[in-house]
Amino acid sequence: MLSGNEDFTESLWDIIITSIHQSLDITTYSLRQLMLLFHANSESFYGDIGQVKVATRKDCTVSEFVRVWHLAQQVGGT
């Protein structure tokens, strides 16, 4: 883009900008979903409206369950 920018037509620039916009949307989707839980100027480090739900398999061992439970507590902030 930097070396060929003088040769680009307006329609090529439209394609480039649209592609960059879509790639950023796709790349940052998960982060934006996570950030929905936080509000500007909030003092809560763990999110304002977030809630963690955990599902485990039926054949999960007790030690696996405890590990997942501990991780959920860390994420949930409790």
Structural class: mainly alpha
Number of strands: 0
| General form | elongated
Q: Report the radius of gyration as a whole number of Å.
A: 22 Å
How many helix segments?
Answer: 2
User: Residue share in helices?
Assistant: 40-55%
Unreliable sequence segments? none
Indicate the mean pLDDT. 79
Q: From N to C, what is the helix and strand string?
A: HH
List strands and helices in order, with pairings.
Elements: H1 10-35, H2 62-76
Keywords:
2 helices, mainly alpha, 78 residues
Quick synopsis:
With 78 residues, the protein is an all-alpha fold. It is built from two helices and no strands. The protein starts with 9 loop residues before the first helix and ends with a helix.
Description:
The protein has 78 residues and is an all-alpha fold. Helix content is 53%, strand content 0%. The protein is built from 2 helices and no strands.
